[in-house]
Amino acid sequence: MNATKKLQTAKQKLRDLQGDRRRRLRIFNHHHPLIAGSYGEFFIRCGQPTGHCHKEGGHFATRLSRWIDGKLKSQIVKVADRSWVKEASDHYKLHKATLRDIQKLNLKEASFIKQLTKLKTIIYP
Questions:
Q1: Phi-psi region at 2: left, alpha or beta (left = phi > 0; alpha = psi -120 to 50)
Q2: What is the Cα–Cα distance from 88 to 28, expressed in whole angstroms?
Q3: Of 10, 16, 23, 115, which has the most beta carbons under 10 Å away?
Q4: Is the dihedral of CA 2, 6, 7, 12 positive or negative?
């Protein structure tokens, strides 16, 4: 492949990465609430001998868990709050994943910029 073709290919790859970046950045323009932590659904047994837990083996509960100072902290989510807390937690996860993707794009872009610089550089005789 000649130098001109390599230069055109590198420029196109850089444009593609920039388009990918723009698409990913759109998520940060939405005004969804975010809640740090992972939303989880599980069965618990509260231990009351006369209650539902004793007869049925447990009951459904939800919690929000996150790491604070190296320790996993969890809190129970109220039944009335379950839907919006789950949605806000999902949006938080999406934001974090998108940020990781953008960081990977930064590395790829830097690589193509170095390649472009090398391809465009001439050596003065």
A1: beta
A2: 14
A3: 10
A4: positive
- The sign one gets for the Cα dihedral 65, 67, 69, 72 is positive
pLDDT digits (tens, 9 = 90+) for 2-48: 878 888 888 888 889 889 999 999 999 888 899 999 999 887 777 66
| Residues in CB range of 75: below 8 A, 6 or more apart | 63, 64
CB 115 within 8 A of CB 10: yes
Q: Phi, psi at residue 81, to the nearest 5°?
A: -100, -5
Tokens of 88: 């806000």
Q: How far apart are CA 116 and CA 68, in angstroms?
A: 43
Cβ proximity of 45 and 60 under 8 Å: no
Crossing angle of the two packed helices 3-25 and 82-120, in degrees rounded to 10: 160
pLDDT at position 61: 85
Is the dihedral angle over the CA atoms 7, 13, 17, 22 positive or is it negative?
positive
Inter-residue contact 42 to 63 (CB < 8 Å): yes
The predicted model scores a pTM of 0.73
